[in-house]
Design a protein that fits this description.
68 residues, 0% strand
Length: 68
């Protein structure tokens, strides 16, 4: 089992955080396009947040399962 500091300093975690920060920025950035375009950006940002979280969780679970 890895320590908390090792987990938050891993490239997987930092990549997941960077993706989520970009998704939040896209979610709340002012959009000057049509309502359809704005809705598409918001849906994509929410999906990105969800997929990054689930993906990171699955990778960490797989790594923890491999270690004795």
């Amino acid at each position: 089992m890895r320590t908390f500091l090792e987990r938050i300093s891993s490239r997987k975690f930092l990549t997941a955080v960077a993706v989520q920060v970009a998704a939040v920025a896209a979610l709340f950035s002012p959009e000057r396009a049509s309502a359809f375009s704005e809705a598409a950006v918001r849906i994509a940002a929410l999906a990105t947040l969800l997929l990054a979280s689930v993906g990171y969780g699955k990778i960490e679970a797989a790594l923890d399962a491999k270690k004795p």
